[in-house]
Specification:
The protein starts with a strand and ends in a 35-residue tail after the last strand. Helix content is 33%, strand content 24%. The protein is an alpha+beta fold. The chain has helices spanning 28-40, 45-54, 60-63, 76-79, 81-97, 115-126, 128-131, 145-156, 244-248, 263-279, 324-331, 343-349, 352-361, 366-380, 382-386, and strands at 5-7, 43-44, 103-109, 135-141, 161-162, 170-175, 181-185, 196-201, 210-215, 218-227, 230-238, 258-261, 281-290, 299-302, 305-307, 317-319, 322-323, 335-342, 389-396. Belongs to the NDUFAF7 family.
Amino acid sequence: HSSMLRWGPPQTRLSCSSSPDLEKPPHSMLRHLTSKIKSTGPISVAEYMREVLTNPVTGYYVRNNMLGPDGDFITSPEISQIFGELLGVWIISEWMGAGRPKQLQLVELGPGKGSLASDILRVFSQLQSVLGEASVSLHLVEVSPTLSQLQAQNLTGNTSQEADSEDEPVYRRGKTTAGLPVCWYRRLDDVPTGFSVFVAHEFFDALPIHKFQRTEKGWREVMVDIDPEKPDHLRFVVTPSPTLASSTLVQADERRDHVEVCAEGGVIIQQLVRRITEDGGAALIADYGHDGTKTDTFRAFKGHQLHDVLASPGTADLTADVDFSYLRRMAGGGVACMGPVTQRTFLKNMGIDTRLQVLLRNCTDPNTRKQLISSYDMLTNRAKMGERFLFFSVLHQSRLAKPKKQDGLSLEKKKIPAQLPVAGFTELSFS
C-alpha cells in the first residue's frame, strides 16, 4: 500500500483523542474490518459504511436502539407531534390529487421508533371522513430487528407476530388499535404493488457512499485502509489508479474537487420511480442534504456529539448529506420532481404556524406550552433544523399535467377541474 497517497484534510477530520473507546482493546467490528482489509486490500467507504451499519451480526443498526435522548441522535418526529401530523396532511393531499384511489398504502423506509408513522396514522383517523371507504395499510421497510420490535410495540401494542421462516418477505405483521394492517419487510422490492405514498425521513443519509478525490491524474476513489504505524487504527487513502466506481459514478462535467456519490440511493430512487409510474403514488424524502454543492459531508455521531468516522467502528452512527441533484438525475424524466426546499419552507407552507396556534389555544399547562414553542423553534429556526433539512418529492407525471382544453364547438360549457397544488412545495390556503 506504500504507493497510495495519504488522505485526510485536517479541516474535515474529527479528533477524538480523548475518547475512552480508543484506549479499549480493538472492537469486534474493528477486528472484522482489519481482517477483511488484510485479506483483500483497502475497502471503499461504501463498503465500510455497509459493514459498520448493517452487518447482520455486529452492525450498528442491527444491534442498537440509537434514537432518542439516550441514543446517538434525535429525529424530528421525536421533537414534535406536529411534524408527523403535517406529513399526514401531505399524504392525504397527494392521495386526493391522484383522484382518491380506492387503495392507499403508506410505505415508510427506515421508520425509526415508529413515531412518524404513528402521528401520520392519527391524522388518517381524524380525517377518516375524507378517506371514506379507501383501503389503508402501513408497510415498513426495516433492516433492524431491534427497531422493528420497538416499532411494533408503539404501533400495534402486543398484537404483532413474527414470521415462522426468515425467508418470508413479510417478517412481522400486526394491526393498529384502529384495525389497520401493518407489515414489516427487509427490502423495498417485497412491498406489494398498488397505489403507495413512500416516506423516507432520515433514510437516504445513512446509505453507503463512495468518496472521490480529483487528482492531477484524474478522479481517484478514497478508500479505508489499516494505518501501518498503528495496526489497530484505520485511515483514509486514495487509490493510485482508477476504480470501477471512480470511472462510472463521477459526472463528466463535475466541477467540485471532492465528491460523494450514493449509488445505492440512486437504485432506490429508480425503484420508487418505477412503482410510482406503474401503480401511481408519490414519494416524500426529507433529509440532511444539498443540491449538488457540498463536498466532504461524511461524519459520525455518538451520544449526540460528532465522532471520528474511523474510530471504534460500530459504536457510532455514520451519515453523509444527501445530494438531491444526484437523486433528481437518477429519477429521470418520466416523473415530476419537486424541491428540494428547506424544512422551514415546507413546514410553513404546510401550515405549521396555524397548527401551533391551535395547540397553544387548547393548552393550559405552562410546561407543555413551553415545550410546544421550543420544538417549533427547533424544527423551523434557520440556525437549527430549519435550513439543514431539505424536502424533495417524486410525483407521477400526470400529477402536474395541465388539463386538456376541449376542441371544437360545445353548447354546454364544461368546467375543467384545476389541479391541486402540491402541498409543502407551494403554500396551502386554509378556508
